[in-house]
User: Fold this.
Amino acid sequence: MVGGLKATILTDWAHTFILLIIIIIFALTTYASHDILGSPSAVYDLLVQAATRHPVDGNKDGSYLTMQSREGAIFFVINIVGEFCGAWSRPCLRCLKLTKHR
Assistant:
């Protein structure tokens, strides 16, 4: 039985890697096999068409593909504050962070 911080980091990495592979497989299956979507460029074209028909208030040029939106900035701040509070309020993660500095 092997344990310690090294084993914790390796298992965290392995589980994250497996989940990312599953997510990528599902995303590529959706993009490649769907009748309407078909490819990432078709999804882009459909999002551009949707933005011209139904623009989003607060986004730059009403686009769904922008990184410049007021609501997006608020969402970013809420997530940063929430993740910081969540990570430091859980004793398990706090112990991992403290042991990394020793």
About this structure: Residues 69-102 form one domain.
